[in-house]
Design a protein that fits this description.
- By secondary structure, the protein is mainly beta.
- It has one domain.
- 9% of the residues lie in helices and 38% in strands.
- The chain has four helices and 15 strands.
- An eight-stranded mixed β-sheet has the order 1-10-2-3-4-5-6-7, with no helix packed on it. Strands 8, 9, 11, 12, 13, 14 and 15 form a seven-stranded mixed β-sheet that branches.
- β14 and β15 form a beta hairpin.
- 36% of the residues are buried.
Amino acid sequence: MIVVASPQDSPIAAELLDPHAPLLKPMYVTVGRQGRPPMGYAWRIWTHRTSFYLKSRAPGLEQLKLSLHGDDPRHPAGGGFKIAMDAAAEPSQEVLTSQFGDWPIWFPGKEIEEGTILVARLRWTWDACTRLPAAPSPGDLRKGATGVAAPPPPEPGDAVDVDLILTTGEPFWLNESKARADDACIGPLRNDADQWLTGTVIKRTASHTPPPGHGVAPMPKGRGDEIRGVSASIDPEGYLWLLEQRMSRAGLSTLASQERPDDD
């Protein structure tokens, strides 16, 4: 995993000395190889007051926003998790969007042990990373921010996931000792409610851990029909999928003009 830290006032940041110390600035996550353009969309993850937020750095995709709210009088009792289209972001005429069902979508996450919640899984597929042109540049990092480029999926059928985990009181990474050895730990961030958000990079066989069927876009019929896109869907177990994949431009145009029937 490639880690890039933007220039800071102090030569050695505390969070680089203690891997459990909270990052003081946003973190950025993508997939790619050293010295090459990113192979997938980049995501900015940051904290503000009692919440965490995630948005894409790709031009035109800034509308899609994940909000993880802690207990706060401005939000529902006990907080909550929401995926929504950010009204403050300017819509792009160059980006095709399709929404089905009621938005915004609130979801519970998946409790993997007491007080430890899998809130979202970011997935980059081999197809999207290998068969499509380079992804848009995420631009420069903010001062003091940390950028992470996970290695791309190595073989057809593979996927690289970043599992985002929310805890209270202390950070948690999936199988931390192995993840540390594999340089696969991201974060942590901490909010004002003493909640912690971490990411664990995991290579999986895509077919062994598939996303919900309604989160898989129509496949392209040829090079001229393929585009890079992201689907947002809720797993039956309660967590959010953000799935980057090759999509059919024509298929998405058709879906955008009609209401999609419910899955059987």
